[in-house]
Amino acid sequence: MRALPRAARALLAAGACLLLAAAVLVPLTLSGGGSGDGAVTGAGNAAATAQPASGRRWVGSWEAADQLGRTVDLRGRTVRMTMRVTLGGSAVRVRLSNSFGTDPLRIGAATVAYRQADAGAVPGTVRRLRFSGNPSVTVPAGGRLVSDAVPLDVPARATLAVSLYLPSFRGQPTSHGTWGSSHAMTYLAAGDRTGELPAAAFRVIRPAWYFVDGIDVAADDPSAGAVVVLGDSITDGTGSTLDADRRWPDLLYDRIAAEDPRLARRTAVLNAGIAGNRVMSEAGHSVAALDRLDGDVLDRSGVREVVVLLGTNDIGNGLANAGVVEQGLAEVARRARDRGLRVVAATLTPARGTRYGHGTAWAEAQRDEVNRWIRAATRQGTFDGMVDFASVVRDPKRPSRLNPAFNSGDWLHPNDAGYRAMAAAVPLRLLGERDDSGGSARATVGSGTARR
């Protein structure tokens, strides 16, 4: 399992949270051979290497990075979770994770469907998930697995409902959002309700995703790939509107769809942000970014680029100076590029005025130094591109602070408008494009105006 230090485990003790679902009521399978893309570990199921129909490839279309969650009692209950995918496809498979588990996780049944209103599922779209042909599965402690593929035409930006029936789970789950929010609604019902269409049996619980950390689609374009955004609470969407898909990676895909439909048909955007995450050290409920890089980025299906926005919490908590953060970011870039990925670095956003440690004069000086290094390192080739979020969201009159129009209330996290400005600043030519020389296209944004 992904171990946290004993002190962190003691910190993570009580509370209640939520669940997740993944299933299909029509047990169909797809033909195909093997694919190395995004192979998952821990369970050894054949679906991890199954390939979709000829001419298509598996690409991650939605992600939630694993965290060790608050204690919750889900025995004999169905958790229905909602997820908005990015790239569409003709089939889906759902990734399950027990990476923080100390005991095997029993999934009694699982389904996936189009979400209707609230916890409702659209009639005719419910598909029961199977695992190596079986309707139930046990995920080993510390393990991950992927469901068999099921045919389901999923449009780009469709919202799916994944339901999991958990016969016996009580404890601290592998989840996302239990210490903050998943920014999407989660629902709970007694008994196995995975195949149920109406919302009446379900009640709302705290927004979180349980035991599901990814959804792959069979992309129609064989050149399709995924952009993974590795970040902290600013990527995770703290300060954005609940259940509205207004985190900046969500809005980035919306922008791609509006401005470049061709790119949107072959590009997914995956959000690997975790509130409180650091580059170099564990943060109570999550492991360091360097330690989760393989599972949350490099091993995702069809990953092509990674955008990195990290370092704020290392500095804000007084755990690292600029030089240490720079070393960590350079290591992220090295490991990702060794796997053939393009790497885009993002400058750290201002935080003066916040009540947190991120707003001290020392933290501001470290942040400025990291940002100068990111700009220089991009010119020197450490990164394939850069997006200057610091310039985009700062107050023009007081650049050490967020623009008041972008402040969610704590002077650290942007609001919906701030996240929209960040999404508008990402150079689209870095996503899925190569320059004529065959090398990685490089681009920067310094003024807040998006460039192609």
UniProtKB/TrEMBL annotation:
SUPFAM superfamilies: SGNH hydrolase (SSF52266)
Positions of the SGNH hydrolase-type esterase domain: 229-421
Region of interest called Disordered, as start-end residue ranges on this chain: 433-452
Domain of life: Bacteria
PANTHER family noted in UniProt: GDSL-LIKE LIPASE/ACYLHYDROLASE, PUTATIVE (AFU_ORTHOLOGUE AFUA_2G00820)-RELATED, GDSL-LIKE LIPASE_ACYLHYDROLASE, PUTATIVE (AFU_ORTHOLOGUE AFUA_2G00820)-RELATED
Protein's UniProt name: SGNH hydrolase-type esterase domain-containing protein
Source organism of the structure: Mangrovactinospora gilvigrisea
